[in-house]
Specification:
mainly alpha; 2 domains; 5 strands; Glycosyltransferase RgtA/B/C/D-like domain-containing protein; membrane; transmembrane helix; transmembrane
Length: about 525
Amino acid sequence: MDQAAGIQQDPRWYWRVFAGLVGLWFVLILLPIILADRPFNDDVVRQATGFYGWNANGRHLSNLLMRVLALGQSRLVDLSPLPQLMALPILAVGSLYWLQRIRIQSVGMAILVALPIGAQPFYLENLSYQFDAGFMALGCTAALFAASRFRRDAGGIAIAAVALLACFGLYQPAINVFLVAFLLVLVRARLDGEVMHVIVRDLLGAVALAGAIGMLHRTLTAHSVSAWVGEHSQLLPFHDLLSGLIANSSAFIGFAAASFHARTLLLWALFAALGAMPWWQFRRTQPSATSLYAAMFWLILPIAMLLASVGPMLLLRDPVILPRVLLATGMLIAGFLAVGAFAIERSAQTTSSVATALRRTWFAATGLFMLIATTHAYAYGNALQAQKQLEHRIVSSLRDDLWQLQQDAGITAVRLDGSMTQSATTQRIGQSFPFIGRMIWPYLHHSDDFSVAFLSQHLPESLRLVPRTETPGWSTTECPSVVVRRADYRIRIFEHTAIVELIADASWHCSHDGPAS
Protein backbone atom coordinates (compact mmCIF):
# COMPACT_ATOMS: atom_id res chain seq x y z
CA MET A 1 0.00 0.00 0.00
CA ASP A 2 2.47 2.58 -1.19
CA GLN A 3 -0.29 5.05 -2.11
CA ALA A 4 -0.70 5.93 1.56
CA ALA A 5 -1.65 9.50 0.97
CA GLY A 6 -4.20 8.71 -1.74
CA ILE A 7 -4.41 11.20 -4.58
CA GLN A 8 -3.83 14.91 -4.57
CA GLN A 9 -7.23 16.37 -5.34
CA ASP A 10 -8.02 19.79 -6.73
CA PRO A 11 -8.61 22.11 -3.72
CA ARG A 12 -12.10 22.76 -5.06
CA TRP A 13 -12.83 19.05 -4.62
CA TYR A 14 -12.19 19.32 -0.86
CA TRP A 15 -14.31 22.41 -0.39
CA ARG A 16 -17.22 21.07 -2.45
CA VAL A 17 -17.28 17.71 -0.68
CA PHE A 18 -16.90 19.41 2.71
CA ALA A 19 -19.73 21.87 2.03
CA GLY A 20 -21.95 19.15 0.58
CA LEU A 21 -21.54 16.86 3.58
CA VAL A 22 -22.02 19.58 6.20
CA GLY A 23 -25.03 21.02 4.37
CA LEU A 24 -26.79 17.69 3.89
CA TRP A 25 -26.08 16.50 7.43
CA PHE A 26 -27.47 19.72 8.84
CA VAL A 27 -30.65 19.90 6.75
CA LEU A 28 -31.46 16.18 6.69
CA ILE A 29 -30.33 15.06 10.15
CA LEU A 30 -29.31 17.69 12.72
CA LEU A 31 -31.91 20.41 12.11
CA PRO A 32 -34.89 18.58 13.73
CA ILE A 33 -32.75 17.76 16.78
CA ILE A 34 -31.66 21.39 17.15
CA LEU A 35 -35.25 22.60 16.79
CA ALA A 36 -36.47 20.16 19.46
CA ASP A 37 -33.83 21.52 21.89
CA ARG A 38 -34.36 18.80 24.50
CA PRO A 39 -31.36 18.05 26.76
CA PHE A 40 -30.49 14.40 26.30
CA ASN A 41 -30.01 12.19 29.38
CA ASP A 42 -26.54 13.10 30.76
CA ASP A 43 -27.08 16.65 29.51
CA VAL A 44 -29.72 17.12 32.21
CA VAL A 45 -27.24 16.21 34.96
CA ARG A 46 -24.49 18.37 33.48
CA GLN A 47 -26.83 21.35 33.18
CA ALA A 48 -27.89 20.98 36.81
CA THR A 49 -24.51 20.28 38.40
CA GLY A 50 -21.93 21.80 36.06
CA PHE A 51 -19.93 18.58 36.49
CA TYR A 52 -17.70 17.60 33.57
CA GLY A 53 -17.52 13.89 34.37
CA TRP A 54 -15.94 12.43 31.22
CA ASN A 55 -12.84 11.29 33.12
CA ALA A 56 -15.01 8.70 34.88
CA ASN A 57 -15.75 7.20 31.44
CA GLY A 58 -12.09 7.01 30.46
CA ARG A 59 -12.58 9.95 28.10
CA HIS A 60 -9.92 12.29 29.44
CA LEU A 61 -9.34 14.05 26.13
CA SER A 62 -13.05 14.92 25.89
CA ASN A 63 -12.87 16.30 29.42
CA LEU A 64 -9.80 18.41 28.58
CA LEU A 65 -11.23 19.79 25.32
CA MET A 66 -14.52 20.72 26.98
CA ARG A 67 -12.60 22.69 29.61
CA VAL A 68 -10.81 24.51 26.80
CA LEU A 69 -14.12 25.20 25.04
CA ALA A 70 -15.57 26.49 28.33
CA LEU A 71 -12.52 28.80 28.67
CA GLY A 72 -11.23 26.94 31.71
CA GLN A 73 -14.32 27.37 33.89
CA SER A 74 -14.38 25.10 36.95
CA ARG A 75 -18.06 24.36 36.32
CA LEU A 76 -19.35 23.17 32.98
CA VAL A 77 -21.00 25.84 30.87
CA ASP A 78 -24.01 25.07 28.67
CA LEU A 79 -22.91 26.05 25.15
CA SER A 80 -25.59 24.18 23.22
CA PRO A 81 -26.08 23.86 20.34
CA LEU A 82 -22.41 24.72 19.63
CA PRO A 83 -21.03 21.19 20.26
CA GLN A 84 -23.73 19.71 18.03
CA LEU A 85 -23.00 22.21 15.25
CA MET A 86 -19.26 21.56 15.64
CA ALA A 87 -19.84 17.84 15.11
CA LEU A 88 -20.70 18.28 11.42
CA PRO A 89 -17.55 20.04 10.13
CA ILE A 90 -15.38 17.87 12.40
CA LEU A 91 -16.88 14.69 10.95
CA ALA A 92 -16.62 16.10 7.42
CA VAL A 93 -12.86 16.66 7.85
CA GLY A 94 -12.35 13.04 8.88
CA SER A 95 -14.46 11.89 5.94
CA LEU A 96 -12.29 13.91 3.55
CA TYR A 97 -9.12 12.16 4.75
CA TRP A 98 -10.71 8.77 4.18
CA LEU A 99 -12.27 9.67 0.81
CA GLN A 100 -8.89 10.93 -0.39
CA ARG A 101 -7.22 7.67 0.67
CA ILE A 102 -9.73 5.47 -1.15
CA ARG A 103 -9.65 7.83 -4.15
CA ILE A 104 -13.29 8.70 -4.86
CA GLN A 105 -12.74 11.38 -7.49
CA SER A 106 -16.30 12.44 -8.32
CA VAL A 107 -17.55 15.17 -5.98
CA GLY A 108 -21.13 13.91 -6.04
CA MET A 109 -20.19 10.29 -5.43
CA ALA A 110 -17.76 11.26 -2.66
CA ILE A 111 -20.54 13.13 -0.85
CA LEU A 112 -22.99 10.24 -1.21
CA VAL A 113 -20.41 7.65 -0.13
CA ALA A 114 -19.55 9.54 3.09
CA LEU A 115 -23.09 10.71 3.86
CA PRO A 116 -24.04 7.63 5.96
CA ILE A 117 -21.12 8.25 8.35
CA GLY A 118 -23.13 11.05 9.97
CA ALA A 119 -26.63 10.25 8.76
CA GLN A 120 -27.37 6.65 9.75
CA PRO A 121 -30.27 6.36 12.23
CA PHE A 122 -28.27 5.10 15.23
CA TYR A 123 -26.05 8.21 15.05
CA LEU A 124 -29.08 10.31 16.01
CA GLU A 125 -28.35 9.49 19.65
CA ASN A 126 -24.76 10.73 19.36
CA LEU A 127 -25.94 13.99 17.81
CA SER A 128 -28.57 14.43 20.54
CA TYR A 129 -26.01 15.07 23.28
CA GLN A 130 -25.82 18.84 23.63
CA PHE A 131 -22.46 18.69 25.44
CA ASP A 132 -20.97 15.58 23.90
CA ALA A 133 -21.82 15.45 20.19
CA GLY A 134 -18.70 17.29 19.04
CA PHE A 135 -16.31 15.04 20.96
CA MET A 136 -17.97 11.86 19.71
CA ALA A 137 -17.57 13.22 16.17
CA LEU A 138 -13.94 14.11 16.90
CA GLY A 139 -13.37 10.52 18.02
CA CYS A 140 -14.69 9.34 14.64
CA THR A 141 -12.45 11.82 12.83
CA ALA A 142 -9.40 10.60 14.78
CA ALA A 143 -10.30 7.04 13.73
CA LEU A 144 -10.73 8.03 10.07
CA PHE A 145 -7.43 9.93 10.16
CA ALA A 146 -5.66 6.87 11.59
CA ALA A 147 -7.14 4.65 8.87
CA SER A 148 -6.07 7.05 6.14
CA ARG A 149 -2.52 7.56 7.43
CA PHE A 150 -1.55 4.03 8.53
CA ARG A 151 1.28 2.64 6.38
CA ARG A 152 4.24 0.27 6.63
CA ASP A 153 6.90 2.55 8.10
CA ALA A 154 7.73 4.04 11.48
CA GLY A 155 6.22 7.41 10.63
CA GLY A 156 2.91 5.97 9.44
CA ILE A 157 2.62 3.67 12.45
CA ALA A 158 3.44 6.51 14.86
CA ILE A 159 0.86 8.86 13.32
CA ALA A 160 -1.81 6.16 13.40
CA ALA A 161 -0.93 5.25 17.00
CA VAL A 162 -1.29 8.84 18.22
CA ALA A 163 -4.59 9.23 16.35
CA LEU A 164 -5.92 5.98 17.84
CA LEU A 165 -4.91 7.03 21.36
CA ALA A 166 -6.83 10.27 20.78
CA CYS A 167 -9.77 8.22 19.51
CA PHE A 168 -9.89 6.18 22.72
CA GLY A 169 -9.57 9.33 24.83
CA LEU A 170 -12.48 10.95 23.01
CA TYR A 171 -14.99 8.11 22.59
CA GLN A 172 -13.97 4.47 22.77
CA PRO A 173 -16.62 2.94 20.43
CA ALA A 174 -15.19 5.09 17.61
CA ILE A 175 -12.38 2.52 17.31
CA ASN A 176 -14.85 0.47 15.27
CA VAL A 177 -14.91 3.29 12.71
CA PHE A 178 -11.15 2.81 12.28
CA LEU A 179 -11.52 -0.93 11.68
CA VAL A 180 -14.22 -0.58 9.01
CA ALA A 181 -12.52 2.39 7.33
CA PHE A 182 -9.21 0.54 7.13
CA LEU A 183 -10.87 -2.48 5.56
CA LEU A 184 -12.00 -0.20 2.74
CA VAL A 185 -8.46 1.15 2.41
CA LEU A 186 -7.38 -2.47 1.88
CA VAL A 187 -10.10 -2.95 -0.75
CA ARG A 188 -8.74 0.06 -2.61
CA ALA A 189 -5.22 -1.33 -2.35
CA ARG A 190 -6.40 -4.67 -3.73
CA LEU A 191 -8.06 -2.85 -6.62
CA ASP A 192 -4.76 -1.11 -7.32
CA GLY A 193 -3.02 -4.46 -7.66
CA GLU A 194 -1.62 -5.09 -4.18
CA VAL A 195 -0.91 -8.78 -3.55
CA MET A 196 -2.99 -10.68 -1.00
CA HIS A 197 -0.23 -11.53 1.46
CA VAL A 198 0.55 -7.81 1.82
CA ILE A 199 -3.15 -7.06 2.34
CA VAL A 200 -3.32 -9.68 5.10
CA ARG A 201 -0.11 -8.39 6.70
CA ASP A 202 -1.40 -4.81 6.76
CA LEU A 203 -4.73 -5.92 8.19
CA LEU A 204 -3.08 -7.87 11.00
CA GLY A 205 -0.75 -4.94 11.67
CA ALA A 206 -3.63 -2.46 11.94
CA VAL A 207 -5.64 -4.76 14.23
CA ALA A 208 -2.57 -5.37 16.41
CA LEU A 209 -1.90 -1.63 16.64
CA ALA A 210 -5.51 -0.90 17.61
CA GLY A 211 -5.40 -3.65 20.24
CA ALA A 212 -2.12 -2.40 21.69
CA ILE A 213 -3.36 1.20 21.90
CA GLY A 214 -6.60 -0.03 23.46
CA MET A 215 -4.70 -1.90 26.18
CA LEU A 216 -2.47 1.13 26.76
CA HIS A 217 -5.51 3.38 27.17
CA ARG A 218 -7.13 0.84 29.49
CA THR A 219 -4.00 0.82 31.68
CA LEU A 220 -3.67 4.60 31.76
CA THR A 221 -7.30 5.20 32.73
CA ALA A 222 -7.94 2.23 35.04
CA HIS A 223 -7.55 4.35 38.19
CA SER A 224 -10.11 6.96 37.18
CA VAL A 225 -13.03 5.14 35.55
CA SER A 226 -16.27 4.60 37.45
CA ALA A 227 -17.36 1.22 38.74
CA TRP A 228 -20.11 1.07 36.09
CA VAL A 229 -17.62 1.64 33.27
CA GLY A 230 -15.21 -0.88 34.77
CA GLU A 231 -17.96 -3.48 35.01
CA HIS A 232 -18.96 -3.06 31.37
CA SER A 233 -15.32 -3.05 30.20
CA GLN A 234 -14.41 -6.50 31.51
CA LEU A 235 -13.23 -8.92 28.84
CA LEU A 236 -14.66 -12.38 28.32
CA PRO A 237 -12.69 -15.11 30.12
CA PHE A 238 -10.78 -17.36 27.74
CA HIS A 239 -12.82 -20.47 28.56
CA ASP A 240 -16.05 -18.61 27.65
CA LEU A 241 -14.66 -16.84 24.59
CA LEU A 242 -16.48 -18.77 21.87
CA SER A 243 -19.85 -18.88 23.61
CA GLY A 244 -19.48 -15.23 24.60
CA LEU A 245 -18.71 -14.17 21.04
CA ILE A 246 -21.76 -16.03 19.76
CA ALA A 247 -23.99 -14.55 22.49
CA ASN A 248 -22.73 -11.00 21.92
CA SER A 249 -23.08 -11.29 18.14
CA SER A 250 -26.64 -12.51 18.61
CA ALA A 251 -27.39 -9.66 21.02
CA PHE A 252 -26.12 -6.97 18.64
CA ILE A 253 -27.95 -8.45 15.65
CA GLY A 254 -31.12 -8.82 17.72
CA PHE A 255 -30.88 -5.21 18.91
CA ALA A 256 -30.42 -3.92 15.36
CA ALA A 257 -33.33 -5.99 14.03
CA ALA A 258 -35.64 -4.98 16.89
CA SER A 259 -34.80 -1.31 16.34
CA PHE A 260 -36.83 -1.09 13.13
CA HIS A 261 -40.40 -1.83 12.12
CA ALA A 262 -40.87 -4.80 9.77
CA ARG A 263 -41.69 -2.47 6.86
CA THR A 264 -38.50 -0.50 7.49
CA LEU A 265 -36.49 -3.73 7.54
CA LEU A 266 -37.89 -4.49 4.08
CA LEU A 267 -36.59 -1.12 2.88
CA TRP A 268 -33.17 -1.90 4.36
CA ALA A 269 -33.26 -5.25 2.53
CA LEU A 270 -34.07 -3.45 -0.73
CA PHE A 271 -31.19 -1.05 -0.09
CA ALA A 272 -28.85 -4.01 0.47
CA ALA A 273 -30.05 -5.71 -2.71
CA LEU A 274 -29.55 -2.58 -4.82
CA GLY A 275 -26.14 -1.95 -3.29
CA ALA A 276 -25.06 -5.57 -3.77
CA MET A 277 -25.49 -5.45 -7.56
CA PRO A 278 -22.40 -3.27 -8.11
CA TRP A 279 -20.52 -5.50 -5.63
CA TRP A 280 -21.32 -8.54 -7.73
CA GLN A 281 -20.34 -6.84 -10.97
CA PHE A 282 -17.18 -5.55 -9.31
CA ARG A 283 -16.10 -9.04 -8.23
CA ARG A 284 -16.79 -10.46 -11.69
CA THR A 285 -14.65 -7.86 -13.44
CA GLN A 286 -11.53 -8.45 -11.33
CA PRO A 287 -8.65 -9.95 -13.35
CA SER A 288 -7.82 -12.37 -10.55
CA ALA A 289 -11.38 -13.43 -9.87
CA THR A 290 -10.48 -17.07 -10.55
CA SER A 291 -7.81 -17.22 -7.84
CA LEU A 292 -8.72 -18.80 -4.54
CA TYR A 293 -7.35 -15.85 -2.54
CA ALA A 294 -9.41 -13.34 -4.51
CA ALA A 295 -12.59 -15.38 -4.20
CA MET A 296 -12.07 -15.70 -0.45
CA PHE A 297 -11.33 -11.97 -0.18
CA TRP A 298 -14.63 -10.91 -1.75
CA LEU A 299 -16.57 -13.58 0.14
CA ILE A 300 -15.13 -12.72 3.55
CA LEU A 301 -15.11 -8.92 3.11
CA PRO A 302 -18.82 -8.26 3.92
CA ILE A 303 -18.61 -10.47 7.02
CA ALA A 304 -15.38 -8.79 8.12
CA MET A 305 -16.94 -5.34 7.71
CA LEU A 306 -19.99 -6.37 9.73
CA LEU A 307 -17.83 -7.75 12.56
CA ALA A 308 -15.55 -4.71 12.48
CA SER A 309 -18.54 -2.38 12.95
CA VAL A 310 -18.94 -3.74 16.50
CA GLY A 311 -15.25 -4.59 16.89
CA PRO A 312 -13.86 -5.13 20.41
CA MET A 313 -17.34 -4.86 21.94
CA LEU A 314 -17.81 -8.51 20.96
CA LEU A 315 -15.04 -9.42 23.41
CA LEU A 316 -16.71 -7.82 26.44
CA ARG A 317 -18.41 -9.81 29.19
CA ASP A 318 -21.33 -7.37 29.42
CA PRO A 319 -21.25 -4.90 26.50
CA VAL A 320 -23.44 -1.81 26.47
CA ILE A 321 -25.81 -2.22 23.53
CA LEU A 322 -27.35 1.15 22.72
CA PRO A 323 -27.66 3.18 19.50
CA ARG A 324 -24.80 5.52 20.46
CA VAL A 325 -22.18 2.73 20.53
CA LEU A 326 -23.19 1.63 17.02
CA LEU A 327 -21.85 4.78 15.36
CA ALA A 328 -19.67 2.60 13.08
CA THR A 329 -22.87 1.44 11.36
CA GLY A 330 -22.58 4.58 9.23
CA MET A 331 -19.05 3.59 8.29
CA LEU A 332 -20.34 0.13 7.37
CA ILE A 333 -22.95 1.61 5.02
CA ALA A 334 -20.39 4.06 3.61
CA GLY A 335 -18.04 1.16 2.88
CA PHE A 336 -20.86 -0.71 1.17
CA LEU A 337 -21.47 2.29 -1.09
CA ALA A 338 -17.73 2.82 -1.64
CA VAL A 339 -17.33 -0.63 -3.19
CA GLY A 340 -20.24 0.22 -5.47
CA ALA A 341 -18.41 3.41 -6.45
CA PHE A 342 -15.31 1.33 -7.24
CA ALA A 343 -17.47 -0.90 -9.45
CA ILE A 344 -18.82 2.11 -11.34
CA GLU A 345 -15.26 3.36 -11.84
CA ARG A 346 -14.27 -0.01 -13.33
CA SER A 347 -17.46 -0.25 -15.39
CA ALA A 348 -16.22 2.65 -17.50
CA GLN A 349 -13.99 0.05 -19.17
CA THR A 350 -17.01 -2.09 -20.14
CA THR A 351 -20.03 -1.45 -22.35
CA SER A 352 -21.93 1.78 -21.83
CA SER A 353 -25.14 -0.11 -21.03
CA VAL A 354 -23.48 -1.94 -18.12
CA ALA A 355 -21.99 1.31 -16.81
CA THR A 356 -25.34 3.09 -17.02
CA ALA A 357 -27.16 0.25 -15.26
CA LEU A 358 -24.62 0.20 -12.44
CA ARG A 359 -24.82 3.95 -11.94
CA ARG A 360 -28.61 3.92 -11.84
CA THR A 361 -28.65 1.05 -9.37
CA TRP A 362 -26.08 2.73 -7.13
CA PHE A 363 -27.86 6.09 -7.12
CA ALA A 364 -31.17 4.34 -6.39
CA ALA A 365 -29.54 2.71 -3.34
CA THR A 366 -28.14 6.03 -2.08
CA GLY A 367 -31.50 7.74 -2.64
CA LEU A 368 -33.28 5.04 -0.65
CA PHE A 369 -30.79 5.45 2.19
CA MET A 370 -31.35 9.21 2.25
CA LEU A 371 -35.11 8.63 2.46
CA ILE A 372 -34.76 6.21 5.39
CA ALA A 373 -32.28 8.44 7.25
CA THR A 374 -34.23 11.67 6.79
CA THR A 375 -37.57 10.13 7.79
CA HIS A 376 -36.04 8.76 11.00
CA ALA A 377 -34.37 12.08 11.83
CA TYR A 378 -37.49 14.21 11.48
CA ALA A 379 -39.70 11.66 13.26
CA TYR A 380 -37.14 11.62 16.08
CA GLY A 381 -37.06 15.41 16.28
CA ASN A 382 -40.85 15.57 16.56
CA ALA A 383 -40.85 12.86 19.23
CA LEU A 384 -38.25 14.80 21.24
CA GLN A 385 -40.24 18.01 20.96
CA ALA A 386 -43.51 16.36 22.01
CA GLN A 387 -41.86 14.80 25.05
CA LYS A 388 -40.26 18.11 26.04
CA GLN A 389 -43.61 19.90 25.82
CA LEU A 390 -45.30 17.32 28.06
CA GLU A 391 -42.54 17.43 30.67
CA HIS A 392 -42.50 21.22 30.80
CA ARG A 393 -46.29 21.39 31.05
CA ILE A 394 -46.26 19.05 34.05
CA VAL A 395 -43.32 20.67 35.81
CA SER A 396 -44.70 24.17 35.26
CA SER A 397 -47.98 23.24 36.94
CA LEU A 398 -46.12 21.38 39.68
CA ARG A 399 -43.87 24.36 40.40
CA ASP A 400 -46.89 26.63 40.94
CA ASP A 401 -48.61 24.09 43.22
CA LEU A 402 -45.51 23.53 45.34
CA TRP A 403 -44.90 27.25 45.69
CA GLN A 404 -48.46 27.68 46.94
CA LEU A 405 -48.03 24.79 49.40
CA GLN A 406 -44.87 26.43 50.69
CA GLN A 407 -46.92 29.48 51.57
CA ASP A 408 -49.97 27.64 52.93
CA ALA A 409 -48.57 24.48 54.54
CA GLY A 410 -44.91 25.34 55.09
CA ILE A 411 -43.48 22.40 53.13
CA THR A 412 -39.68 22.20 53.00
CA ALA A 413 -39.06 19.08 50.91
CA VAL A 414 -40.41 17.18 47.90
CA ARG A 415 -40.47 13.45 47.26
CA LEU A 416 -41.30 12.06 43.82
CA ASP A 417 -43.27 8.85 43.51
CA GLY A 418 -44.28 6.98 40.37
CA SER A 419 -43.40 8.07 36.88
CA MET A 420 -44.78 9.81 33.85
CA THR A 421 -45.13 8.09 30.49
CA GLN A 422 -44.08 9.26 27.08
CA SER A 423 -46.31 11.76 25.34
CA ALA A 424 -48.95 10.38 22.99
CA THR A 425 -47.01 11.66 19.96
CA THR A 426 -43.77 10.11 21.22
CA GLN A 427 -45.49 6.79 21.81
CA ARG A 428 -47.00 6.74 18.31
CA ILE A 429 -43.64 7.54 16.72
CA GLY A 430 -42.00 4.89 18.90
CA GLN A 431 -44.43 2.28 17.61
CA SER A 432 -43.39 3.04 14.02
CA PHE A 433 -39.69 3.49 14.82
CA PRO A 434 -38.96 1.26 17.85
CA PHE A 435 -35.43 2.44 18.63
CA ILE A 436 -36.67 6.05 18.79
CA GLY A 437 -39.17 5.03 21.45
CA ARG A 438 -36.40 3.37 23.47
CA MET A 439 -34.07 6.38 23.18
CA ILE A 440 -36.46 8.92 24.68
CA TRP A 441 -36.64 8.45 28.43
CA PRO A 442 -39.15 10.46 30.49
CA TYR A 443 -37.30 12.66 32.97
CA LEU A 444 -39.94 12.40 35.70
CA HIS A 445 -39.47 8.98 37.24
CA HIS A 446 -39.08 8.01 40.88
CA SER A 447 -36.29 5.51 40.12
CA ASP A 448 -34.38 7.61 37.61
CA ASP A 449 -31.36 9.74 38.53
CA PHE A 450 -32.23 12.17 35.74
CA SER A 451 -35.42 13.18 37.54
CA VAL A 452 -33.55 14.81 40.45
CA ALA A 453 -31.40 16.87 38.09
CA PHE A 454 -34.40 17.79 35.96
CA LEU A 455 -36.57 18.86 38.89
CA SER A 456 -33.74 20.79 40.54
CA GLN A 457 -33.73 23.15 37.56
CA HIS A 458 -37.47 23.85 37.65
CA LEU A 459 -38.69 23.69 41.26
CA PRO A 460 -38.17 26.33 43.96
CA GLU A 461 -34.57 26.23 45.20
CA SER A 462 -35.73 26.36 48.81
CA LEU A 463 -37.30 22.89 48.54
CA ARG A 464 -35.13 19.87 49.28
CA LEU A 465 -35.52 16.92 46.91
CA VAL A 466 -35.82 13.74 48.97
CA PRO A 467 -33.83 10.88 47.35
CA ARG A 468 -35.76 7.78 46.40
CA THR A 469 -33.52 5.67 48.65
CA GLU A 470 -34.88 7.42 51.74
CA THR A 471 -37.59 5.33 53.40
CA PRO A 472 -40.96 7.13 53.66
CA GLY A 473 -42.36 7.62 57.14
CA TRP A 474 -45.87 6.42 56.32
CA SER A 475 -47.59 3.23 55.23
CA THR A 476 -49.88 2.69 52.26
CA THR A 477 -52.76 1.93 54.64
CA GLU A 478 -52.36 5.13 56.63
CA CYS A 479 -50.98 7.58 54.12
CA PRO A 480 -51.76 11.29 53.93
CA SER A 481 -54.82 12.55 52.10
CA VAL A 482 -54.55 14.19 48.70
CA VAL A 483 -54.31 17.98 48.97
CA VAL A 484 -53.81 18.76 45.27
CA ARG A 485 -55.17 16.74 42.37
CA ARG A 486 -54.22 17.37 38.74
CA ALA A 487 -54.60 15.38 35.53
CA ASP A 488 -50.99 14.15 35.68
CA TYR A 489 -50.23 14.02 39.41
CA ARG A 490 -51.57 14.41 42.91
CA ILE A 491 -49.85 15.80 45.99
CA ARG A 492 -50.02 14.63 49.61
CA ILE A 493 -48.27 16.18 52.60
CA PHE A 494 -46.51 14.20 55.31
CA GLU A 495 -45.11 16.42 58.05
CA HIS A 496 -43.29 19.06 55.96
CA THR A 497 -42.70 16.92 52.85
CA ALA A 498 -44.83 17.10 49.70
CA ILE A 499 -45.26 13.66 48.13
CA VAL A 500 -45.79 14.13 44.39
CA GLU A 501 -47.45 11.01 43.02
CA LEU A 502 -47.32 10.83 39.23
CA ILE A 503 -50.57 9.16 38.24
CA ALA A 504 -49.36 7.56 35.00
CA ASP A 505 -47.36 4.89 36.84
CA ALA A 506 -47.43 5.17 40.61
CA SER A 507 -45.09 2.82 42.45
CA TRP A 508 -47.47 2.49 45.42
CA HIS A 509 -51.11 3.29 46.06
CA CYS A 510 -52.90 4.32 49.22
CA SER A 511 -55.96 2.44 50.39
CA HIS A 512 -57.78 5.79 50.45
CA ASP A 513 -57.23 8.89 48.43
CA GLY A 514 -59.68 11.16 50.13
CA PRO A 515 -60.93 14.38 48.62
CA ALA A 516 -58.55 17.19 47.93
CA SER A 517 -58.63 19.61 50.81
